């Protein structure tokens, strides 16, 4: 009797296992091949992105460093006012078509430590390189004295500033006020100063959009009849230069730019000395920390829109987003312009335990920890006058 030879179970097991391993290995080889192709494609894409991005950045920077028009024979007259910062100078050069990009020029100046610019009148060409323009500005001299100067003090309202320019520069006060309150004009300024002017100044409760933003300083003018636009942009340029030097501190504070300016205006209106500004700022912070209203009188006066020597109880009842006896926290906007010391006090207040303060008839400020202490000071310095 005969029978077919069959493979042993062990041999079948190894044969099956081998076939499976072979199939798995084949599949893995395919996967590895696909992965390899994918990685190669991704590397190529990444390399292209880096190359294109780098080339685009290179072209952008190169354009900013190159003359606007190497073949130009045109000369453009510009004026660099005394006290102009790098930002203001770069903006003047860009606006007059002498450089491609003001931001790149500011980096160029910083990188080359070129900061000794001289005020005066210059005749520059779009064909000049950044180095040539910078050399010219560093070696130039003031070619003429300003036609006139205008000093705007700290703590002034827009209406008072308009009056000053009417007296000192023959600018019609009402025309000035109409211009700075024109919504479309203000929007154009917001586009020009995005880091300074925000939508908050167009809040329907804001009395004057540029209140607090026209910086107090002495301004020099080299033309006999400057336009209102020239005056306003000169003052906003100064505000931007001052505030941008505190940009990091403002960013780290609990307030945005508009709120910092509002806070500084309150400090400016309440204090006379740097010491008092720092302490009064601390009182405001302490009150806000305890959810107390600020209750500062200058906001009541501003809410009424007229000068008041003394306030009576009825005055405090006015319903207004500016009245800090009626609203919690800061008012809706600034109530005046402010000096740098008020800004510094706002960003770096003294540490104190005080919640109240008042000024006597001689302008001395007295501080109190409690309302009872405050009442005693009122009886001593206010009610007995």
Automatic annotation (TrEMBL):
List, in alphabetical order, the Gene Ontology terms for molecular function in this entry: lytic endotransglycosylase activity
Q: Where are the transmembrane segments?
A: 38-58
Any GO BP: cell wall organization
Give yes or no: UniProt keyword Chaperone: no
Q: Which reaction does it catalyse?
A: a peptidoglycan chain = a peptidoglycan chain with N-acetyl-1,6-anhydromuramyl-[peptide] at the reducing end + a peptidoglycan chain with N-acetylglucosamine at the non-reducing end
InterPro entries registered for this protein in UniProt: MLTG-like
Q: Does the keyword Membrane apply?
A: yes
- A Pfam family recorded for this sequence: YceG
Question: What's the family?
Answer: Belongs to the transglycosylase MltG family.
- Protein name listed in UniProt: Endolytic murein transglycosylase
């Amino acid at each position: 009797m005969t029978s077919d030879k069959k493979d042993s179970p062990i041999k079948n097991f190894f044969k099956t296992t081998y076939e499976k391993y072979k199939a798995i290995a084949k599949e893995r080889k395919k996967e590895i091949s696909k992965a390899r192709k994918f990685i190669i494609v991704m590397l190529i894409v990444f390399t292209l992105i880096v190359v294109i991005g780098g080339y685009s950045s290179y072209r952008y920077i190169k354009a900013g460093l190159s003359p606007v028009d190497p073949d130009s024979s045109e000369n453009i007259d510009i004026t660099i006012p005394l006290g102009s910062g790098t930002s203001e100078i770069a903006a003047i050069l860009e606006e007059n078509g002498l450089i491609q990009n003001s931001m790149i020029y500011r980096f160029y100046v910083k990188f080359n430590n070129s900061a000794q610019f001289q005020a005066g009148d210059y005749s520059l060409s779009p064909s000049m390189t950044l180095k040539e323009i910078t050399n010219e500005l560093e070696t130039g001299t003031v070619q003429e004295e300003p036609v006139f100067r205008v000093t705007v003090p700290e703590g002034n309202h827009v209406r008072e500033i308009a009056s000053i320019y009417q007296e000192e520069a023959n600018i019609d006060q009402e025309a000035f006020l109409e211009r700075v309150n024109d919504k479309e004009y203000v929007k154009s300024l917001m586009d020009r100063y995005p880091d300074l002017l925000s939508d908050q100044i167009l809040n329907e409760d804001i009395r004057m959009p540029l209140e607090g933003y026209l910086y107090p300083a002495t301004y020099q003018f080299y033309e006999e009849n400057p336009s209102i636009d020239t005056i306003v942009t000169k003052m906003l340029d100064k505000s931007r230069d001052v505030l941008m030097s505190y940009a990091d501190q403002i960013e780290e504070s609990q307030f945005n730019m508009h709120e910092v300016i509002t806070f500084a205006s309150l400090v400016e209106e309440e204090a006379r000395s740097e010491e008092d500004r720092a302490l009064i700022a601390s009182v405001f912070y302490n009150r806000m920390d305890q959810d107390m209203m600020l209750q500062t009188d200058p906001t009541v006066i501003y809410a009424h829109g007229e000068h008041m020597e003394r306030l009576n109880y009825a005055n405090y009842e006015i319903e207004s987003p500016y009245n800090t006896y009626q609203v919690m926290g800061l008012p809706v906007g600034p109530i005046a312009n402010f000096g740098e010391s008020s800004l510094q006090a706002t960003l770096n207040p003294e540490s104190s335990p005080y919640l109240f303060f008042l000024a006597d008839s001689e302008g001395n400020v007295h501080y109190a920890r409690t309302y009872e202490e405050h009442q005693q000071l009122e009886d001593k310095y206010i009610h007995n006058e």
